[in-house]
Write a structure and sequence with these properties.
This protein is an alpha+beta fold and 127 residues long. Helix content is 16%, strand content 43%. It has a four-stranded mixed beta sheet. Strands 3-2-5-6 form a four-stranded antiparallel beta sheet, with no helix packed on it. The N and C termini lie far apart (80 Å).
């Protein structure tokens, strides 16, 4: 009798043990604010993300279905980059990248199968 229950339970157990496998490949998108000004990124959700001077923030990541990195212009995480500074509590647009220019992003692979694209913002870029 116990064998009959096992036969009926086996497909259920196998089905619940199956999980979507992570390919292990990921692309992360970063902005490094190397300027002397605190900046604010206008996100796709129309919210401001603060990027302090001399800091780096991640603006998104994508799990790759392929074994290569996904360039910023092909990422679905963001469609443009708009950076603002504050002037007397008003936001002032100081940098825009619309459409995304892949040539302005620095590519790296800090660990195996983990890719990064970094947008470096300097005083010269925002002045």
């Amino acid at each position: 009798m116990k064998k009959i229950y096992l036969i009926f339970l086996l497909p259920f157990l196998v089905a619940t043990q199956c999980q979507e496998e992570d390919s292990g490949f990921e692309t992360n998108y970063l902005i490094h604010n190397n300027s002397s000004t605190d900046l604010f990124l206008l996100t796709e959700e129309d919210r401001y993300l603060e990027i302090k001077s001399q800091s780096t923030v991640s603006i998104g990541s994508v799990l790759n279905s392929e074994t290569s990195a996904i360039v910023p212009s092909e990422s679905y995480v963001f469609s443009n980059v708009k950076l603002y500074a504050t002037d007397n509590y008003n936001f002032v647009l100081v940098y825009i990248q619309d459409p995304i220019n892949d040539d302005l992003w620095i590519f790296g692979e800090p660990i195996m199968n983990r890719y990064e694209y970094t947008l470096l913002i300097t005083n010269e870029v925002i002045d």
